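dumping this here before i forget
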Amino acid sequence: MSQPQSSAAIDDTDDLHAQARGWIAWLASGAADEAGLGDFERWLDGPGHRRAFERERQLWRSLGPRPGHEPERSAALPQPRRQRTRSRWRPALAAAAVLVLALASPEAWLRLRADHRSAHGAETVALPDGSRAVLDADSAIAVHYDRGQRRVELLRGRVWFEVAADPARRFAVAAGDGLVEDISTAFAVADVDGRIETAVSQGRVRVAATAEGGWTYLDAGQRAAYGPGRSVARLDDAPADGVGAWRQGELLLDQASVDAAVRQLARYRAGPILIRGDLAALPKVSAALRIARPEQALDALAASAGLSVTRLPFGVAIVQPAAPR
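structure:
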């Protein structure tokens, strides 16, 4: 599927929304590539484009993806019977398109679902109720607020929340198959390769691994984790003031495996890190790395963990166990 044609001359609202639907259809097709995504980002910067896209995206997210040519074809088909037939099949087609998109292009799928994303550094987001979310690098959330709920969906990475009081609406974070609910607090939620970790810096939260699961209550300095098919398990306590230390530009490693440390540091680099060899045999590391300077942090990690780093063009770094001396 070809990407939609951008047009600087378009000023008609209907046409602008049609273009937005075209971009959604292209993203949903699974044909999205880096060059096309760049064109898409430039299109978003046009006057009124982002608003049109957000409106269409919200409709898409609530009803399911709608191929770009469908609305126009629907408008040209006035027969009630045929419209009813299309309406009956729409949920199934939408579900199929969602599945295709999620499998074929997870990055495009993420872009369509996310309300806020971060790149290679932490970003602070003011939520509609006055709460605050700080996204670590390479993280994404979707925000679902209405008169009865405040719900944030963690789509990728890790986020620290500072929640504004609202007795009428509980604040909840959906992550994996489970839920983390605020009681009166500040806390962090992280998705680490499908394992959801929660740590509390102030107040109290409760955590459930599934919608039907029992609650586990956590106070300041306490941590817990759950994963697919697993119940909530308590982790070792941590200093409350160290929860979400990345907000202050620090990556704290406490007896972390070298492989995990490298992968955590990779989120702060513009270029990828490729791992060669087996890092599992290397001793675990404890360190405080300055993530605002990821290259120096990588060198510091390499020096302490016994790694060698080879840097290539376009930001690529190859990390492997250093040769014995």
